[in-house]
Amino acid sequence: MCQAHPTTPVAGHTGGVTPELPDECCITVRHTGPLHGEVVVPGAKNSVLKLMAASLLADGAYELTNVPAIVDVSIMADLLRAIGVRVWLDEPGIVTIINTGKLTPVAPFELVERIRASINVLGPLLARCGHVRLSMPGGDDFGTRPIDMHIAGLEAMGATFRFGDDYVEAVAERLHGAEITFDFPSVGATENLVTAAVFAKGVTTIHNAAREPEIIDLCEFLVAMGAQIDGAGTSTLRIRGVERDQMHACEHETVPDRIQAATYIAACAVAGGELELLNAKPAHMQMALSRFSDMGMEFEQLPYGLRVTAPDRLRSADIATLPYPGIATDYKPVIIAMLSVAEGVAIVTENLYPGRFRYLDELVRLGADIRLDGHHAIVRGVPRLVGAQVVSHDIRAGAAMVVAGLAAEGTTTITGVHHIDRGYDDLVGRLSAVGADITRHEP
Length: 443
Ligand code: EPU
Hints:
Layout: E1 26-30, E2 35-40, H1 45-54, E3 60-65, H2 71-83, E4 86-88, E5 95-99, E6 106-107, H3 109-112, H4 122-129, E7 131-135, H5 148-156, E8 160-163, E9 167-171, E10 179-181, H6 187-197, E11 203-207, H7 213-224, E12 228-230, E13 236-240, E14 251-253, H8 258-271, E15 273-278, H9 286-294, E16 298-302, E17 305-309, E18 319-320, H10 332-339, E19 345-349, H11 360-365, E20 369-373, E21 376-380, E22 385-386, E23 389-391, H12 395-406, E24 408-409, E25 411-415, H13 417-423, H14 427-433, E26 437-441
Parallel strand pairs: 2-15, 3-14, 6-7, 10-11, 18-19, 22-24, 23-25
Antiparallel strand pairs: 1-25, 1-26, 3-5, 4-5, 7-9, 8-9, 11-13, 12-13, 15-17, 16-17, 19-21, 20-21
């Protein structure tokens, strides 16, 4: 369900005909610029959800701070509650969790199907309870997202799996250490194996592990709980199992969200102006910043974040998505929105999710000149897009529609807002505060 984030249209609204609004929650965006001011970058969705799942490992009272106000956090809270943990989201930016150890290691379908990160309870519950039953995880609409690497890794550590039509069950009295080499540095599989390995007997080594800042954040959280982990942020993770009574609850500040930060960079890029992104961590997005610089953006690292200055017009640059430290697939939709109005032609190659191009049709509806060729998108920049009604099919696609709307003459009306709410903490309010003509409408 959509939650209201009322915003006031900024002064200097260009006027014009406002189209009839659809009979559902929507966002309208009009071409505005330049943007000026400060945007506080919230904590990372793809970290906090994993931290919450990892709290299943040990009893006690946890406090997570810098938590984004997004729907996925509420869903993960409901999932933990269904398992037997007490969770409070009352204070802005804070999640309080009390794990009393009375856990039912079953993750029900109605919650699991709503977020991909529900798969992250698999490792902790198996390690903690010795068995787990999980409905098959849901997530975004960009193709099948198998969990074979999670399963193979846990099997190597001694788990036995049983598969039903729409669920998976795993059993392991006590997991043991293993040498595991991933074919691909999967984020979710790395997280599940690290959390499962903290109680395993002996040492678990994961080769070709994912290196994302959110993985480092999870490892730091686990170490603060008493786990023994070396190599966080490198492609070899070594986890020495500890006894259950060596792990305890802790407090932890969630790492800032590099994908939300990139979304505000993209907004500034197409609208023009200068933004200060408070809390942004340039070190976590070096490759993307370098490519944005190629496109004409200027950056200045500040003690408390990042200053972003847009050129008069962006230049095109080719982009290929890769696991970290490469350019994340999650940046790609907003980058394509930028390229849609850049000078020149760019080839964008998707190497992680071949199906993650569905939103291109929506950008084309706004006047973008994009041709799809296999897992490459050829984007020929046009001077200006034209507003239309478009649908957000997933979280990042929704953000791309908002960015594109800032570059479009007239009004862009975006439906499917519930996807944006899953991962963006008040995108409308934050953009409106720096001068964007953007409004959220409840039905
Ligand atoms: N893969 C397999 N088998 C596996 C695991 C992954 O084939 O067992 C494949 C996937 O199908 C995909 C690729 O490996 O083609 C990458 O998957 P990965 O496991 O790295 O991704 P994930 O953990 O499922 C997380 C984020 C995604 C983000 C990817 C890549 C969360 C909840 N999700 O997914 O974020 O795109 O890493 O960086 O952390 C989003 O936030 O909008 C989002 C989709």
